[in-house]
């Protein structure tokens, strides 16, 4: 099904205007050494620092260029130039010094998308601290767990979030020395609680001159916790050298440059919202749009049109919600400035790619990467035709392979070796280790980190297939793959077929134990407005699946208007399976609540 020859063919004018107009030539000529040479480096050869590449080098030559445009929750718009962002981040770096925060200590943020978050993130990197952003919708226990695992010394949050998320667990966090409360000083600490400091008052008391200390490219810079959907969250450590990959991949995969207005809708509490929602666009000298408010379809179109967004990076879930909102809303807005749309976070079904091309006027470019990879690894590119439903092809500088899997679903190593499979066969996606943003470890989990590699390959845990032309197609997580009647079924393939039916807005597929087949395929679907979940539609959807998938089609189907998602938009199949089978639901800290 997925290796379709159906393609979205782009005009020659689009190919010529792309920042990477020739994929094959780019792969032949690319080197990470050359990409690293595009970074300015700290003055006098003092190393490489992410914040210098994102802020200070632009402030020196284009200081009046808008770095951040913040769309406030109150309807106001605030522009912050690169020169002003340099001053603000210098103050934050000096504030950490005044608190006695040492280099290498971890600074956590628990903030909504407000200006203070971006200042704290970049100021921490300037000072040589390790930034660990947390999602602001986390409850007290997920916050405490990550602060404990990461041995957080400083937390930047708001009075409201502190009262609801931190105060209930503060006694269990003896390593946490300082809680800096962002926002209006009038909203600061008023109860005399020890260890609370007004961030505004602290910044007012320090200077706005700061010299970034020597920074080795291998110095730790970022700590990103995985979602923790199974077991204890893993803390992936990234270094300052990651900025080389952030910069190079933003140009190659997102077609991003210095004159773009860029909007990444991912929350900075997740890796996408840090790598591409803070660092990458600023390294290019672009204008980064920051929206404090939550999703609303009509307002999002207002933002795209009113702010003349040129490059937009968002999630499949958001795009599917826009599809459900209807085409009339698009017609009311001038989206002529929008020239590149990309998507990440979960596989993107072909129907949304086609909808975007027809309705928005530009197709969505799906891409693939993980918290551990730190940057985009596989993508559809601006100058290339799109095969709807495909992840795309590896970026220049990235070597990918599909490896044979053993009975446990992971890369086969029974004889001590991994083996590639032929095109068209499912296997585990692996990447040749060594790119700059590759994670350098799981915090305090050396054995878990070592188990992620085999014979120089990073084993991603994702099951994919590569077609004969080199495009990659997602099948599922290794632990999601369904084994039914001797077949290995990738959930995404089945879900994509179901979502091609006009009644289906979203679909999720799990394996359900069966005494004959081992597992049978069960589907859960959310319907588009106007469709009634009656017996007739139920039978029609099962028949639709059988006609297109044959023996691996769903045997059971249920309509569920509220499929469980993580807060970053991924459907939680393992939670559906647990509820279906009456199993423990596990860590629910990242589950979206309504």
TrEMBL record:
Catalytic activity, EC: 6.2.1.1
Pfam family name, one: AMP-binding_C
Location of the AMP-dependent synthetase/ligase domain: 56-443
Gene3D superfamilies: 3.30.300.30, N-terminal domain of ligase-like
GO molecular function: ligase activity
Domain AMP-binding enzyme C-terminal intervals: 493-570
Superkingdom assignment: Bacteria
Record's keyword terms, sorted: Acetylation, ATP-binding, Ligase, Nucleotide-binding
NCBIfam families: PRK04319.1
Protein name as catalogued: acetate--CoA ligase
